Amino acid sequence: MTDMDTNVELLRCSEELKSEGNDHYRARRWEDALAAYRSALGRLPKLKSIPKARSPEKDSDADESLLERDSSGQSSNEDMRKQDEVIPLTEEEAQVAKARSVLNANIGACYVKLGEHKEAVNACTEALRDDPNYIKVLQRRAASNEQLNTWSSLSSAQEDYNTLLGIVPESSNESREVQRTLRLLKPRLEAAQKRETTEMIDKLKGVGNSILGNFGLSTDNFQFVPNGQGGYSMNFSR
């Protein structure tokens, strides 16, 4: 059996399990759907990482080769560009990538239904590795990051919404909805930044007081003043 025949069989088995998952999902059996989708995903070949150009420090032979080409008047930049080129997927690999992306998207949808938004974000991220412009998944990851409601997660949601603005038609209802969401997100992001910065400073003060107390000082001797660039400056006073 050839590799192509093997992948065709794996796709067939994966599709059957995905169909089972869809039945469970429609019946609102989220746990069963999740298990079926994960089993289906496990049947598919894993996403291969794109090989990167090897550094000279790790490959002296490659370094010498480039130097030889330089001495003959040919640029090593051309060699590096060739190594960085993304090799197009074959039709078969594209089918596997699409199936993998859809299954990860479905897994993310199950986690959303189960209220496990951190896991939903992770699953959506995996789906986007195969299909970076998967609109529904970008929306789902952004929504789950909003639910997590941390400075970091809200920043990630903002990035996804901005990505969506570059994908959906500018005059579409989707674009207008994303723009509205971004406007609503901005004050939440600023509030989360302020809240977490205050919490961090309070923790640092607690640690600082335990040390400075030995010298008759406290963190009250140090004032944190916003520097107008999103950070703080520290001033000392008696």
TrEMBL record:
Residues 46-84 are annotated as: Disordered. TPR repeats lie at residues 101-134. Gene3D superfamilies: Tetratricopeptide repeat domain (1.25.40.10). Keywords: TPR repeat. This is TPR-like protein. InterPro entries: TPR-like_helical_dom_sf, TPR_domain_protein, TPR_rpt. It comes from Lentinula boryana. The lineage of its organism: Eukaryota, Fungi, Dikarya, Basidiomycota, Agaricomycotina.
